[in-house]
Amino acid sequence: MSNLAIGFAGFAAIVGLIGLRFHVGLALIIVAFTGLMLITNIDIALSMLRVLPYDFVTDWDLSAVPMFLLMGAIAHRSGMTASLFDVARLWFSRMPGGLAVATNFACAGFSSASGSSLATTMAIGRITIPEMRKYHYDPGLAAGIVACGGTLGVLIPPSIILVLYGIFAEVSIAKLFMAGVLPGLLTAGVYFGQIVLRCWLNPSLAPPVPDHPSWSERLRALRTIWPLPLLILAVIGGIYTGIATPTEAGALGAFLALLIALAQRRMTVRIFRQAARESIMATASIFFVAIGALLLTRFMAFSGVPMFLAGLVADYSVDTTTMILITLAIYLVLGMFLDPLGMMLLTLPVMLPMFQAAGMDLIWFGILMVKFIEIGLITPPVGLNVYAVKLLAPDYKLQEIFRGALWFLLAEILIIGLLITFPQITLFLPSIM
Amino acid sequence: MRTFLARLTVRASDWAMALAEIGIALMMFHVVTEIVSRRLFRVSLDAVPEIVGYYYMASVIFLSLAYVTRAEGHVAATLFTDLLPIKVQSLLMGIVLVILGGVMTVFAWQMGIEAVRMTRIGEFHQGATLNLPTWPSRWFPPVGAVLMALMAFLMALDKLIGQQTVAQVATEDLPPEQQPEQQEEQLRKELA
Amino acid sequence: FTYSSWTPPAAPNNRLGTVPMFERITESLAGTDDAMTFENFMGGQLFNNTTTLPAIRDGIIDGGVLVPAYNGAELRTHVTLGETQALINDGLSGAAAATEALLLNCPGCLEEYAAQNVLPLGTYASTPYYLMCNFEVTSIADLQGRRSAEGNPMFNRWAQRIGMSRQSLSPPDFQQALQRGSVDCVFAPKDWLVAYSLADAVVSIVDDVSHGAFSAVVLMGVNTNTWAGMTEAQREAFRREMPQAIMDVTNGYYIDEARGMAAAEEAGIKLVNLGEEYAQVWADFQEAERAEIVQAANGRGAAGAEELVDRFSELLVEWEGIAEEVDRDPDAIAERMYERIFAQLPF
Ligand code: NA
Ligand code: NA
After folding, report:
1. A263: Cβ–Cβ under 8 A, 6 or more apart, which residues?
2. Neighbouring residues of the ion ligand 1, judged by CB less than 5 Å
3. In whole angstroms, what is the distance from residue C119 CA to residue C115 CA?
């Protein structure tokens, strides 16, 4: 078998093993290890196990994940989020799917501070999913909005992926950030429209609220919930004023949540330990999958599949539009299996020179590419954001979450169509700076 | 014998989890201390990112793996297997757990080799003012992987034979949505 | 021959270094029994700054780029050469001197690499580092109490000397940190104005005093088994091409420095001169650095640091002379490097 064939067979094997109820991380590790062994030899495959997982886990930047989870867990377990639904109900009473709408904008707001999709999904999901569950929101809707809302995290600045793209493509990071703002807001807006429309057409997705609350009722509801927006604003503010880096902000958020809970006398050692334990478990589970994804990326690098697929773009493009559509198709396929960062590292060396040669604006392409690769986070069979939601809501079925995310995928197609047709959406803000 | 080994492994996974809890708590306090010290006193603590990465992150992830396995907290899809009879499901899960145990044994062995090597050379990170030893953290992965492998093997036996020797994780430690309603109520009352 | 680097494909070490070097070797050996092909994994597809060394050690890849400080325990002695940044005023002569010191004057370094199953084939250098701030610096007093970001111990000592506090950040974070004001200043080579978008956030650059060039990046660390398995013609092709690649990369950083300065001008960044006072403080600091380097090396348990630093200083003077002599022509320096260093190698 050629290396390429081994690579493609690896994709099929992943689907098979996950279908047989292998843990996702285990399936990825087995496939990556076997693939590396077939392409190179067993010593090299074993050496990958020695070298990579430790280095990956000990990454400082990733510490934001357990810290934001801890923030959410403390907030939830100390009762800070308990009346979230009441507030959403009272304030968005006329709006179908109020809490889902609130979640959508919470993700957008949180994105403007956090640079990572996973951190956004985990932080907001930990707070809003239990509340949506309590009020019998459709699991697909509740989980879908959290999984997909997280992807706003890389478009709305700051964004780790955009920084890396900027360094790769040698374009201005500040301009990339400006370019991401309108597409990010557009995405949040289309998500919003989609939620409201679906809940309006099918009220069983989110429980309808018949009453028309008075303003005093609304304000009263706020009195119980004020620490939560305060907490999130403090985290965002901490980053924007340069007090904390986006990585440090997670620890700051967890600490502030702890302080608020202590001040409200809602914290005990037992509750803290439970919050810690819960955050650790979700982090470890997602990292186990991520270690598999990491090994898979190395297997894919040796197999040459991503470079082969990226090379197809040049072969079949007749103009820039087909070029972009073929690129989208390739990222959709790769995104089913690979994580965004791995995908970007494997394909950019081939893609960038091609798009440069075609005279395309590399800032515009960067935003499109980030959109393309982030879709991989919500598509089966390997979708890290969907897994993150599954960990936050273990009773939701994985297929329910993927199905819920499908609606947002449809929304994404509309958004990407708009971004391709109107490059000004992306390029207007950077052009005026 | 098997019951004893199961009890021992469960106990060990609890202790490892307790260490991970200390790790996550220290992560929060250490980073906040650095922010405050830098902001208020203009003094930067040395090597905080490295201490967080090598010590806290490594302990949080690797030491908790066995506990997560015991709580059946790993991500898995049940779409197709749900259609199978319960007995076949147990058999399948038993086999998957055996394979998981095998893979984690290989992990433990390989990362153990690296841990020995790094201990011998005294691996360190060169900070601005200090040389931070990092070799001790190399032991988190093999220890965590061994525990996870043991746990997986024991749980596999349970599934295959149809007995329960590995004690389940207390539900109060799981995210609240998995807990029975009353328990959450209980928690509320306790707080009030 | 598989090679791995963690820098983006467009970075000089790839674009001007290994990529054309591999092409030249492939071409020169084509059609003979010694023909070679290369697979070049760039941009961290496979390994990053810390995992490249064990990856070469275990033979996952045949060669890769290495910076000793990221594997300080394994490469204690070579780290010492990396610490000499403050002594190096120019990249071209710095790269040549550091390569000669590593390959011919530091048996301890080569032993360390050998213990990792690696043969280093020379180091390239950055361009000099400058102080860049997000406010307009007008005097050395302005720096008192400001925050700086740095990535190595030398800048920690220097920051202290001029009364700045420090935070260790990695270069990709510099732009955001400057923009938000988490730090006020960074130490960086001028090519980072573009490469890491620093031009988006920097307001002024202290232009009259540079803070040394970093000269300890091993462009090519080869797995020793791979090297032993190569034919003599193949090894000679490497020895022939290495000095050229090292000079092409180092000179490439100077070309990128010019590009960075063009970006600075376009962004309206002020170039300020702090004059004699600052230069004097820096000169005193340079002098004191020798002792610091030796002390740090002893703390790490690296042997022979004093001799190594002395020898390196001599070589630096000699190569500065050679660079002058050939008018800083990178090709001519490469030719001299081949004669003086690579033709003399016992391996
Ligand atoms: Na963001
Ligand atoms: Na996917």
Report:
1. none
2. A 111, 153, 156, 159
3. 10
Cα distance between residue A214 and residue B29, in whole Å: 43
**DSSP H or E segment with residue C88:** none
Pairwise CA distance, residues A403 & A189, whole Å = 21
The token pair at C60 is 């996952």
A390 inside 8 A of chain B by CB: yes
Q: Do B128 and C150 touch (CB under 8 A)?
A: yes
Cα three-residue angle C21-C26-C31, rounded to 5 degrees: 160
Which tens digit of pLDDT belongs to each residue from A9-54? 999 999 999 888 899 999 999 999 999 999 999 999 999 999 999 9
**Cβ under 8 Å to B: A residues 243-262:** 243-244, 247-248, 251-252, 254-255, 258
Separation of A157 CA from ligand 1 center, angstroms?
4
Which of the residues in chain B have pLDDT under 50?
179-183, 187, 191-192
Percent of chain C with pLDDT over 70: 100
- To the nearest whole angstrom, how far is the Cα of C295 from the nearest Cα of chain A? 29
Please report, for chain A, the start and end positions of each structural domain, with discontinuous segments joined by +: 3-431
Higher pLDDT, A96 or C23: C23
Nearest to C36 by CA among C227, C225, C230, C224: C230
For residue C186, report the phi and psi dihedrals to the nearest 5 degrees: -130, 160
CA C191/CA C39 separation, integer angstroms: 27
Percent of chain A with pLDDT over 90: 36
Q: State how far the Cα of C2 lies from the Cα of C226, in Å rounded to an integer.
A: 10
Q: Could you tell me the two tokens for C268?
A: 């309206």
Residue of chain A minimizing CA distance to C14: A349
At A157 the pLDDT is 80
Widest CA span of chain A, in angstroms?
A: 72
Are residues A69 and A126 in contact, defined by beta-carbon separation less than 8 angstroms? yes
Distance from CA of B169 to the nearest CA of A (A): 12
Ligand 2 ion: nearby residues, β-carbon < 5 Å: A 335-336, 376, 379, 382-383
A56 CB-side CA count, 13 A: 27
pLDDT in tens, C92-121: 999 999 999 999 999 999 999 999 999 999
Category of A378 on φ-ψ map: left (φ > 0), alpha (ψ -120 to 50) or beta: alpha
Q: Kindly determine whether residue B54 and residue A393, on different chains, have CB atoms separated by under 8 Å.
A: no
Q: Please answer whether residues C113 and C120 qualify as being in contact, where contact means their C-beta atoms are separated by less than 8 angstroms.
A: yes
Q: Coil, strand or helix: which one is C304?
A: coil
Query: Which ligand minimizes its atom distance to the CA of A293?
Result: 2
| C171 close contact with B: CB closer than 8 A | no
Strand partners, A261: none
The more confidently predicted of residues A92 and A200 is: A200
Residue A334, C-beta contacts closer than 8 angstroms, at least 6 positions apart: A306, A309, A343, A346, A347, A376
Considering only CB atoms, B129 lies closest to which of C79, C147, C156, namely C156
% chain C with pLDDT above 90: 78
Tens digits of residue pLDDT in C44-71: 889 999 999 999 999 999 999 999 999 9
Cβ of residue C156 closer than 8 Å to a chain B Cβ: yes
Which range (A259-263, A357-361, C111-115) has the least confidence?
Answer: A357-361
Helix, strand, coil percentages (3-state) for chain A, rounded to 5, are 80, 0, 20
